[in-house]
Structure formats: structure tokens, C-alpha cells
Amino acid sequence: MLLFSVLILMGLSCKTNVSVLVPIDPCQSKPCKNGGVCEQHKESYTCHCPMPYTGTKCEKGKCCFHNTSCNRGDCLITLTPPYYQCSCRHPYKLPSSKSACSPSPCKNGGVCLRNRIRSKFTCQCPESFRGRYCETGPEDCYEQDGLKYRGKVSQTVQQKTCLHWNSHLLLGHSFNAFMEDAENHGLGSHNFCRNPDGDEKPWCFVHVNKKVKWDFCEVSSCSAVPDPTPSSSLLMPGTCGQPERVRTVQRIYGGSKAAAGKHPWQASLQNKVWFNLFMPRGHFCGGVLIEPCWVLTAAHCLGIAAPQMEVFLGKQHLGRRESHEQRFDVEKIIVHGRYEERHEIPYNDIALLKLKPIDGHCAVETKYVKTECLPDSAFPDGTECYISGWGATETGDESRQLLDARVKLISQTQCNTRRAYNNDVDENMLCAGNLQSRGADTCQGDSGGPLTCIKNGSYYIYGIVSWGDLCGLRFKPGVYTRVTRFLNWIRTVIKRESYSPR
């Protein structure tokens, strides 16, 4: 009996020892990264890191703790001494460089043009080449989802320069030049776009506002790239004011059906819910995409809160869901500080909508969605420009199909005559249409949409549909917000509120 009791006590003692004295091995979860060897210390562990890695989990590069600083550049990890090197971020150069163009950063025969600001430059690319450094040729495109893409594009759709895959900033990320099977994924000591995770197209990491994000790259699908023959112009992804289909625009009010892809910057502002008979659910104003996360529109359109709005890009028909449309919630509404209405006339009638990103990015450039350029100078009176929208037509009903029309810019003097608007049009407005006869015009539902003018093959947002007496009447042309008067405000707001891709 005594022996039996002793055995029981010994057994209890053994069970207690198992739970207290033999803890779970902390190295089982493989906490050490980049080939680090895990050594257990009772309930803790130590990572022994191979060169050039350091940190508690070998997640950092040696250069992070070096006295050497890359200043505005990026510190790249190398596997040979001194285990790091500096990569200069555009437009900065190594100390030995005398200027932005010495030596020339332009590739494939591109000519480096210096800017007045000494650190800046532009590469004038030979025909068929594109990119900041003329690094992208006509054959540089991706098949299917770009899993096997091995081209040299290193810029995102939002014009950000890609990080090198061996950047010290990526050591804690799943995809870098030192990951398992990196070579088979095309990753290495470069910053070219790749698709190691089988996403829909090539992408890369970028460093903005002290954060590492990712974004899709400015590279075209091979099936979408036309042959660069002398008689055709190669549309460049990422450039503004380049519609997919450039055709003669026919005669909105007195207008005709717009071809898909002809106004890829056109936006539809819509109510998410039914407010009342005057503000039903659906389209209520137009807008124009000027940057991936920014839509320009008229201030008088915005009588509702941002959470109650949604913006559609790439739409042609309001009455059906289209495969190529892109929908966004509105993160913020920014109305011009001097906007006001006097005698039913809106002054400084301009506003910006900041779109809420989806999966880290806003508008993605496609055949049906592109940005329109901001103008850099005035267009002369008499210039033929174009309007587009879903507003009221001659029948009095709003169109479900996107329409467009041609109008001519009218001088301020003519527009302010007694028969016209009798000095109600100030310097921040402009008129377009036809004074002498009834004709094409914008109307209700077109407000906030673009008045587009062309220069050197690029389309510029020159006016925003604002107001007018009825629609299409003699001596009563459409009145538009003159965008050139608000360029500083637009750029200041976007810079202040800028969103960085993920």
C-alpha cells in the first residue's frame, strides 16, 4: 500500500514536470527571417543572422545601423561587402553628378532636356519609346496577368517610381529579392515591375509619406498595344488627355451618342439613396477625372454629404451596370472658399472630390477610364471645344446614354452684351456655344461636367459646366467656370490632401 502511494505521487510529480519545465519550443514558429538560425533559451530565443541582415528577427538590413546615410536615396541590401549601396531617388543624383543631365539618365537614344530647376529634367524619347527615362519600348508589355513579365517598366499608374526589390524597406515584406524562389519570380537587384503573387497585372512597391505601399504599374497588356506604325500614335498609359478613340465629335442638347472610350475622364456623380422628388437616387451631376483620386466638378452640385455620394467612372449608359465602369465612394468634398450664389448665379463655382481608395488605389487606367489634362494656357476665342454629359435633351428628358457636342469659345465682351448676359459673366467664367442661333448646349444634369479643348493632340479641361438661361437659346450660351483661374487652388488642395497608393 505504501509502495502504491509512492508510485502515485511519482506519477503526479512527472505530469507536473512536463507542464512546467518543458515549455513549447519558441523556434517552432520559425521567427527568424532571411535565413537566420533560431537558438532557444528556455522560453525565449535568439536569431543568429547571416550577413547582411540584423534585427531581432533578421528582418532589417545592415545599412539601417550604419553611419552611412543615403539621405534622399534608398539603401539597397547586397550580399557582398559592404553589404549595402545607395540608390538615388528621382530626380537626385550621386555626388559625382554635375547636373540632372550629366550623365544623361535617358535610355534608348532619348535626349535629356534640363529644366530651369537644376535638379529636374525631361527625357525626349525617340518614336515608339516611352517612360520617364525612355526605358519602355513597343515590345515591353505583359501577356495574360503578367506572371512571366520581365520587362523594364519601373513606374506605377500614379507616376510613382518603384522601390528596388532589394530595398532595406522590403525586408519585412513577403516579396523581396531575398525571398525563396525570388529568381523564378523575376525579383532581384532592380526596381522593375513584376507579378510574383499572380495579381491581375504587374505591380511594385513604392515609398510615399514614410510608408511602403504597393500599386499597379504603368505597363500595357500585349493584346492592347497597337503596332507603332508612322500613321498611328501609340497611346501612352499614364498620360492625361488621351481618349481611346479619337473621332470627329458630332453635334447633350442638340448632341449625339458618344462612342465608348471617347470621354474616359467623364464622371457621373450619383446619390446613393432617394432624398425627395428633387433629389432622387442616381445621377445628378457630372465631373471630370484629373488624377486617379481626384474629380473636378461644380460647387453648386454639392448639397449633400460625402457619405451619401458615389462616383462612377467609365460609364456610358446610366440605366445598366457596365463591366468597364469603376465605382468609388467619396472620402472628402472640398468646395472653393469663395464660392457663393448671387441672384441665382454661382460665383467661383468649382469643387474637388477626393475619392475613397479601394484596395489601396483609386481609378485604374483602362480604355474607358483616363485622366484629363489641366490647361497650361488660355485658348483663343472661336476655338471649337467639346461638351459631354447625361443632361436634358431637346425632348426635356435627361439622357441615359452619354452624349457629346461641339461648341465654340465666345469672347467675354460678346457674352456680356445686353442681349446676352449683360455683364453677369465675370473673369472667372467663360462662355461657349452659339450666340446667333439655337444650337448645341449643356443643360440640367450636365452641371460639373467638362468643357474640353484640344492642343497638340491632348485634351484639356478648360471649363466646368456651371449655369445659363435655359438651354440652347439664341444669345444665351452656356457659362462655364474658367479652370485656368483656379489652377493654383486645384494643385494646392491636391498636394495638401494627396493620397498615396498602398
UniProtKB/TrEMBL annotation:
It is found in: Secreted. Residues 1-18 form the signal peptide. Residues 23-59, 97-135 form the EGF-like domain. It comes from the Eukaryota. This is Hyaluronan binding protein 2. The keyword Electron transport does not apply. Keywords: Disulfide bond, EGF-like domain, Glycoprotein, Hydrolase, Kringle, Protease, Repeat, Secreted, Serine protease, Signal. One of its GO terms (molecular function) is serine-type endopeptidase activity. Its main location: secreted. InterPro entries: EGF, EGF-like_Ca-bd_dom, Kringle, Kringle-like, Kringle_CS, Kringle_sf, Pept_S1A_FX, Peptidase_S1_PA. Residues 252-495 form the Peptidase S1 domain. The active site is at H300, D349, S447. Belongs to the peptidase S1 family. Snake venom subfamily. Pfam families: EGF, Kringle, Trypsin. Residues 140-222 form the Kringle domain. One of its GO terms (biological process) is blood coagulation. The keyword Glycoprotein applies. One of its GO terms (cellular component) is extracellular space. PROSITE patterns: EGF_1, EGF_2, EGF_3, KRINGLE_1, KRINGLE_2, TRYPSIN_DOM, TRYPSIN_HIS, TRYPSIN_SER. Disulfide bonds join C49-C58, C106-C123, C125-C134.
